[in-house]
Specification:
It comes from Croceitalea vernalis. This is DUF4920 domain-containing protein. Keywords: Signal. The chain has about 160 residues and is of the alpha+beta class. It has one domain (about 30-155): OB fold (Dihydrolipoamide Acetyltransferase, E2P), CATH 2.40.50. The protein is about 25% helix and about 35% strand. The chain has three helices and six strands. The protein has helices at about 1-20, 120-130, 130-135; strands at about 30, 55-65, 75-80, 85-90, 105-115, 140-155. Strands 2-3-4-6-5 form a five-stranded mixed β-barrel. A hairpin with a 6-residue loop joins strand 2 and strand 3 (about 75-80). It is globular, with a radius of gyration of 20 Å.
Length: about 160
């Protein structure tokens, strides 16, 4: 009987360890792994010199402000200057957890400026749950700061 009780205790300890490891799956590495380089707090300045269709490889960091609530296929990140960058993931190859908002992120990939079509703006507005009346007001192409991440590291 003692052996049986010991086995139960060991089993419960294993389950407890596993559940602790699973407590916060909204942090960690997603996509391709990368070595984090020491970056400037002003890494957002990369966008100042870019024109539409220019790209540059860089790591950016900031605070996640929004995540696609359909499946985590995009996010918006506030850079340290108050500007927001729209982030998609390379080849639709990975997603981030839906509860990643308000966490800090380091992203590895390419920065660029894009003219977002009216249709694409409306699609993302629908993903965000924007009211149909507001979506109908989207009528012009918009220049946006964009980023294509091949890997992200989400911290608390």
């Amino acid at each position: 009987m003692k052996t049986f009780n010991i086995l139960i205790v060991i089993f419960l300890m294993i389950i407890a360890q596993f559940s602790q490891a699973q407590d916060d799956i909204s942090t960690g590495q997603f996509g391709s792994s990368f070595d984090k380089v020491k970056s400037s707090e002003e890494n957002w300045k990369v966008y100042e010199g870019l024109k539409v269709a220019d790209t540059t490889l860089i790591q950016l960091s900031g605070k996640i402000t929004e995540v696609c609530q359909a499946k985590g296929c995009w996010m918006k990140v506030d850079l340290s200057n108050g500007q927001e960058v729209f982030v998609k993931f390379k080849d639709y190859g990975f997603f981030v957890p839906l509860d990643s908002s308000d966490k800090t992120v380091v992203m590895n990939g390419k920065a660029f400026i894009e003219e977002m079509s009216v249709e694409e703006q409306k699609h993302y507005a629908e993903d965000e749950g924007v009211a149909k009346e507001e979506i109908a007001k989207i009528t012009q192409v918009k220049k946006t700061l964009r980023y294509e991440a091949d890997g992200v590291l989400i911290n608390q």
